[in-house]
Amino acid sequence: MKNIKAISRMLIVGIIIVIIVIAGVVGYYLTIPTTPAAKDTLVEGTTDSIETCLDTARAYDFFGLSIVQALSSGLVDFKPGATGSVNDIIPALATNWSSSADGLQWTFILRQGVKFDDDTEFNATHVKYTFDRGISINDPDGAFGGVGYGDIIENVTVVNTYTVKFYLRIPFSAFLSLMAFQVSFIVDPRYAPFDAVVEYDSSRTPRENHAMGLGPYTLANWTRVAGKETEIRLEANTRYWDASNGLPKTKNIIIKFYSDATNLASAIRSKQVDVAFRQLQAVDIQDMMTDDTLHVWGGTGSFIQYLCFQERYAPFNVTAIRQAVGAAINRTTIVQTVFLGQAQKLYSMIPIGMSGHTDAFLTLGDPNYNKTRELLAPLGYNETHKLPFTLWYETSGHYPQSADLATVLKSSIEASGVISVSLGSAEWASYKEKRSRAEMEAYIYGWYPDYVDPDDYTYPFIHSSGGGWLNTNYSNPQMDTLIEWARGNTSATTRDNLYAQIQNLTVTDSPMIPLYQGSAYAVTDPKVKGVYLDITQVWRYWLLYIEQ
């Protein structure tokens, strides 16, 4: 009996020891540091807005296309950190692709098992529908925002459920880059009627206000008043084709809109937002670089701004006058005074670092006031009879420091002594309408890359078909021919030679004058990760996250 009691005590002690050991092991593993979890919600602040709508058949502005890319996907994409090389293009809705030897046929094998956010299964018919629709819609700016898809693509054919083939009119060298452009992203036929653009309508649901459905996010809310956004909310798309890789990294994105750069800077400093992106003033960016409570992200800039001339009526229907104003521009003052060195002087419509770039506009001077006076003197303009014109700029924060840029331009041009400049301004929606109605004789505009290729900085501006959206009324058959040769040629050497001729002719005709090339900046809370600012200028919402 004593032995039984002793054994019982030993068993009880043993069990207690085992429990203590197990508890210790569990406690140890529970205290091992783990990878910080991301917060569910990230708040972004911006002064930007959606220019028109969230439909790839018309959307053609930076912010609008950033939201399009959050709500849809293309056949291919640029990897984060891209330099613009074709080697930076990665699979998206297409897993692989090939082209014919002559470059006129492109075949894409599509990813299987992909679903739209309405549970419709994606297949080759949706690719064909997207491009047939975009090319056929009679938009005022031309198909797909005036990019000229119809001049490039002859037809799209469904080979089978998961194979689609593009037949091209020309061996377009930038075709893969064009497929990575958000305008090429796939639409959902249930929400994108074939013969009409999906416009914003406050009476409709957020889902009915856009044409997409294959992206990392769904649109939970989109509120706008008088053409200006007040709030946008994005929620993770549970049917996203890349969700198994943990994307998007943040479940909810809330975008707040600020009236100007000063209020946006205040919002990021006071932690009202986690991210401030577009547009902050150069002085605030400079100051924030030394603020330990913030992180400034800088990256490659391919954004350019330029001065457009209206050639429909005097005074800029005269080439010599356009050249004279171009010769009076002081880019050093623009870069150093307005942007505090956070930009580069630009002498070409093709950005620095991109194939085909030359400093062609240096031939006009920077500035060369003697040339300005020489060009204007035969036309009767001098110190006592100055050339008058109005220079227009936008006031909505769509572009960085527009008022400052306009003021410096006015001062620079008037320093010639033979030109008098008045300033005109309008908020973005009105500004765009004035451009379309040819009401501004000289005005400042800007450009972000669509597809990373010199064609994207020439065809949409100075080809008689592509440049119609700017409504400068510039047209030159010789220019059209050169651009068409360049976009249909696959030889890098030949294309560089053609773009050199194109830029020289742009100087001769001076329908617009390049001003500067900007750098890309975003300011965030130090815990925000996943910011990529590369040459594509793609703002990747699905990679942003905040560490807990």
Tell me the count of domains: 3
Tell me the span between the first and last alpha carbons: 61 Å
Proportion of helical residues: 25-40%
Mean pLDDT level: 91
Q: Largest sheet at a glance?
A: 11 strands, mixed
CATH class membership of the largest domain: Alpha Beta
Number of strands: 19
Question: For the CA atoms, what is the radius of gyration?
Answer: 28 Å
Structural class: alpha+beta
The CATH architecture of the largest domain can be named as Roll
Q: Based on CA inertia axes, which overall geometry fits?
A: globular
Task: Describe what you observe in this structure.
With 548 residues, the chain is α+β, with helices and mostly antiparallel strands. It folds into 3 domains: 72-184, Dipeptide-binding Protein, Domain 1 (Dipeptide-binding Protein, domain 1, Alpha-Beta Complex), CATH 3.90.76; 207-299 and 520-546, Periplasmic binding protein-like II (D-Maltodextrin-Binding Protein, domain 2, 3-Layer(aba) Sandwich); 303-519, Dipeptide-binding Protein, Domain 3 (Dipeptide-binding Protein, domain 3, Roll), CATH 3.10.105. 29% of the residues lie in helices and 22% in strands. The protein has 15 helices and 19 strands. It has helices spanning 2-30, 62-71, 124-136, 149-152, 175-180, 261-269, 282-288, 319-327, 331-338, 369-376, 402-414, 428-436, 459-462, 477-487, 492-509, and strands at residues 41-46, 76-78, 89-91, 94-99, 105-110, 153-160, 163-168, 217-225, 228-236, 252-257, 275-276, 295-309, 343-345, 387-394, 419-426, 442-447, 512-524, 528-529, 545-546. Strands 1, 8, 9, 10, 11, 12, 13, 14, 15, 16 and 17 form an 11-stranded mixed β-sheet that branches. Strands 4-5-7-6 form a 4-stranded antiparallel β-sheet. It has a two-stranded antiparallel sheet with strand order 2-3. β6 (153-160) and β7 (163-168) form a beta hairpin. α8 runs antiparallel to α10 (369-376) and α14 packs antiparallel against α15. The longest helix has 29 residues, at 2-30. Mean pLDDT is 91; it is low at 1-8 and 10-35.
